[in-house]
């Protein structure tokens, strides 16, 4: 019997990558079950916030199997689906090899294999909190984005209502673990999910980290009572620069 990977809050890249390799095949199905279908609504909200247009080049980080990338590409944009899990990338290529406008790249968010100012927009969904140095990741995203380009982050956050927060903690602590063990190939991975959510920045704190990385026009809105937050920002336009069209 092989030993399952189980990351911890040190977020060692090899362990986190190995953990996602193991759950790649059933990842999207498990997420839909555990989120009670809300993952689809969050994906729609993220794509709308990103506002992709035909001809734009967009980086979808922590893209997993590319489900979000395919949704973005339907707008006519060219999407690079990047993830540091080889298993996720392989599963994404298997599922979406024939989808026009989507390419898959194995990439570390803290050391992206792209040129400066290569993308009109960058997005990352439910992946930033898994990056060992999230602030370095935010700076790398800024580097590869064109002046005036957009950043959209969809991430688990902190419910603003005490009642919702208590209900959410109960679900994560008591309901989610047994379901995850039933439907996932690595139920222990979802114990890490709970730990990483608890330790993650709340909405104002993450907004501050985004600003500190050099982004401007930082804003957020809550989804599902603050269980998830959608953060948005822009790369400053320097002297003589112009917004991407």
Automatic annotation (TrEMBL):
Pfam families xref list? Ubie_methyltran
Keywords from the UniProt entry:
Menaquinone biosynthesis, Methyltransferase, S-adenosyl-L-methionine, Transferase
Spell out where the chain crosses the membrane: none
Question: What does the record list as coiled-coil region(s)?
Answer: none
| Recorded catalytic activity of this chain's protein | a 2-demethylmenaquinol + S-adenosyl-L-methionine = a menaquinol + S-adenosyl-L-homocysteine + H(+)
Q: What is its EC number?
A: 2.1.1.163
* CDD domains, per the entry: AdoMet_MTases
Q: Highest taxon of the source?
A: Bacteria
Q: Which GO terms describe its molecular function?
A: demethylmenaquinone methyltransferase activity
Q: In which pathway does it act?
A: Quinol/quinone metabolism; menaquinone biosynthesis; menaquinol from 1,4-dihydroxy-2-naphthoate: step 2/2
- Report residues binding S-adenosyl-L-methionine: 65, 83, 108-109, 125
**GO terms classed as biological process:** methylation
The similarity comment for this entry is: Belongs to the class I-like SAM-binding methyltransferase superfamily. MenG/UbiE family.
Which HAMAP family did the record assign? MenG_UbiE_methyltr (MF_01813)
Question: Which NCBIfam families does the UniProt entry name for this protein?
Answer: MenG_MenH_UbiE (TIGR01934), PRK00216.1-2 (NF001241)
What biological function has been recorded for the protein in this entry? Methyltransferase required for the conversion of demethylmenaquinol (DMKH2) to menaquinol (MKH2).
Protein name stated in the entry: Demethylmenaquinone methyltransferase
* Gene behind the chain: menG
